[in-house]
Specification:
The structure is a homodimer.
Chain A lengths: L11 E10 L6 H13 L4 E8 L4 E8 L2 H8 L2 H14 E17 L3
Antiparallel strand pairs in A: 1-3, 1-4, 2-3
Helix pairs in contact in A: 1-3
């Protein structure tokens, strides 16, 4: 499966979530998988790209049709619980930025 | 050093560069270091966040004051050469998205 998100022509929205994991799993892997699956089923979801380095620092960018779709996903009950645990246990720090994608280009052969 | 970028209040711009590396180094590590150093000295540069997983997929998000600053960095002679080599040798695929950051929040204790 390609790690790239196949997004439509701009404009659309990106949620840039950068985070530093605390040591150990503590249920994180299972929850991350569940959230990826759940997000993919939400209205306006366009795709996701994600990586984490050996130092525990990771970036996940999810793409959405509109700010309203992002707000609805943020308020989803299961996602709220994941956010709470993330804040309490899984992340020693994070930054979340919401941005409007205005231009895009790619190297298509991959 | 913190892996997080200390960005100002929104709005500002993000260049989201996701890429899949070809196997082997072939001068990539040295060039990546040089480009990070060079970018940091450009007008309007606000910071960068970057990670790459063991599968070779990585995301680098650089933050800028304006679209003009991004365009100037894209056209920088040394950076043009790096872009050429990236396209030819280092990346089997990439996506580059330019986005206007409109909202941000963080977990400050880190």
């Amino acid at each position: 499966m390609s790690p790239f998100a196949s997004t439509p022509a701009a404009p659309y929205y990106a949620v840039i979530f950068s985070s530093l994991r605390t040591p150990g799993d503590a249920g994180y892997g299972e929850m991350a998988e569940r959230m990826a699956e759940l997000a993919a089923g939400q209205p306006g979801y366009l795709g996701v790209e994600s990586c984490r380095g050996a130092d525990g620092f990771g970036i996940t960018v999810s793409y959405w049709r509109s700010l309203d779709d992002i707000a609805a996903w943020k308020a989803h009950a299961e996602h709220l619980e994941a956010q709470r645990l993330g804040h309490q246990q899984w992340y020693s720090g994070f930054e979340l930025r919401i941005a409007r994608v205005e231009q895009a280009r790619s190297k298509p052969a991959r």
